[in-house]
Specification:
This protein is an alpha/beta fold and 427 residues long. The chain has a 10-stranded mixed beta sheet, sandwiched between helices. Bound molecules: inosinic acid.
């Protein structure tokens, strides 16, 4: 089976971009199936950093076809800006970057509402969103009044849909102290963007299915992470779309029998950006050190990420809800120089000790830690398992033993070659 799903096993920002980019060397097609410009997948090639928010991370490999499928929400202004940025770097997108004509469009008032809600919410009621209009756009989709990318072919239709959506949002915008936009201003915003977006439209379900039937290697690139998933995350501190492996099928229009393998990406520690529970969070100098060493600042918003120890019950949870075949462990180099590394192996709850993630009851759960020895020197030059210090290998073996999931790949630095591939993802 030639379909491989790469998914975030934590709260997003696991380093999926680098992993997808690496595997794209052997992939023919890379498909993004959920989320929108709330994602920021960072790729470092030859020391140069590129952040993509909507286009699949495969875009840097000239031979890969890239698909933005119908589970996504697309801000056309962000998409056009991203394409211009890529083309300016000499990366051709014409004829190899396709956008589903059934993806939903993020409109300026979605961004407005997202920002107003976050700014006006009382402390404790904030989600800590990226303010990119993601939630309101998915609300319109579920409310069956959304504008789809395919609608951009017909501006008469666009006008009707925009008029209806503005009428629906007007009371909310006014209640939040904002000013509803005019229909005309939204149409003027969309018109030049539509001219750029429409030539990219395709039935991407057909394209993806055909690639799979032809035995091509297809990578499905998840966005965000398991614990931000609308159904399986730490609700309500989640995103508004699916971030788990099954979403690859729903979001791209293929059946579950087409997916052969699921790889979960986790950092060697944990981070979270935005509000919501994070039981293994470090509030001390060590947390600060990991943040600085790991460059843990949001690639979309620049917000400092919260940092903490690896949560094994969380990874086991991710293994269950995604059906993980293997793990990729990223940013392991960031832990270099620590005398000791802690891992959360269980939780103490009022009902006793549990190895399950108390996903809806974190308030009354206390992490139980196990300490493993750290390693003193940099591991950035390691290219095989044998190059790693014995204590690093022990840490990895402990993760495998505690999660029951084998580690296929270890990343020891941001560049493509700072990687140890234990097992190839495409057989
Ligand atoms: P939204 O997706 O902008 O609505 O934000 C909802 C929550 O998901 C917030 O906690 C965000 O910080 C988080 N989030 C959304 N996208 C990402 C991502 O790509 N990486 C990490 N966190 C994200």
């Amino acid at each position: 089976m030639s379909g491989v799903v790469i998914i975030g096993a934590q709260w997003g920002d696991e380093g999926k971009g680098k992993i997808v980019d690496l595997y794209t060397e052997r992939a023919d097609t890379v498909v993004r199936f959920a989320g929108g410009p709330n994602a920021g997948h960072t790729l470092v090639v030859g020391g140069e950093k590129v952040v993509v928010r909507l286009t699949p991370s495969g875009i840097l490999r000239p031979k890969a076809e890239c698909v933005m499928a119908q589970g996504m929400v697309i801000d056309p202004a962000v998409l056009v800006g991203e394409i211009d940025m890529l083309e300016a770097r000499g990366i051709k997108t014409t004829g190899r970057l396709w956008l589903s004509d059934r993806a939903h469009v993020i409109l300026p008032f979605h961004v407005l509402v997202d920002g107003l809600r976050e700014d006006r919410a009382a402390r404790g009621a904030k989600i800590g969103t990226t303010k990119r209009g993601i939630g309101p756009a998915y609300e319109d989709k579920a409310g069956r009044r959304g504008l789809r990318t395919g609608d951009l072919r017909d501006f008469g239709r666009v006008e009707n849909l925009v008029r209806g959506a503005i009428a629906a949002w007007e009371p909310t915008i006014v209640a939040l102290g904002g000013e509803p936009p005019s229909v005309q201003s939204v149409l003027s915003h969309l018109e030049p963007l539509a001219a750029r977006v429409v030539p990219m439209l395709a039935d991407t379900s057909i394209k993806t299915d055909r690639a799979l039937r032809e035995g091509k290697n297809v990578l499905f690139e998840g966005a965000q992470g398991t614990l931000l998933d609308l159904d399986h995350g730490t609700y309500p501190y989640v995103t508004s779309s699916t971030a788990v492996a099954a979403g690859a099928c729903v979001g791209s229009g293929i059946g579950p029998t087409r997916v052969g393998r699921v790889l979960g990406v986790t950092k060697g520690y944990a981070t979270r950006v935005g509000e919501g529970p994070f039981p293994t969070e470090l509030h001390d100098a060590l947390g600060e050190r990991i943040r600085n060493q790991g460059g843990e600042f949001g690639s979309v918003t620049g917000r400092p990420r919260r940092t903490g120890w690896l949560d094994i019950p969380g990874l086991r949870y991710a293994s269950r809800v995604n059906g993980l075949d293997a793990l990729a462990v990223t940013k392991l180099d960031v832990l270099s120089g620590l005398d000791e590394i802690k891992v959360c192996v269980a939780y103490d709850t009022p009902e006793g000790r549990t190895e399950e993630l108390p996903v809806d009851a974190f308030a009354n759960a206390k992490p139980v830690y196990e300490a493993v020895p750290g390693w003193p020197a940099s591991i950035r030059s390691a290219r095989t398992l044998a190059d790693l210090p014995a204590t690093t290998r022990t840490y990895l073996a402990r993760i495998e033993a505690l999660t029951g999931v084998p580690i296929d790949l270890i990343s020891v630095g941001p560049d493509r070659d700072a990687t140890i591939i234990v097992r190839e993802v495409f057989g």
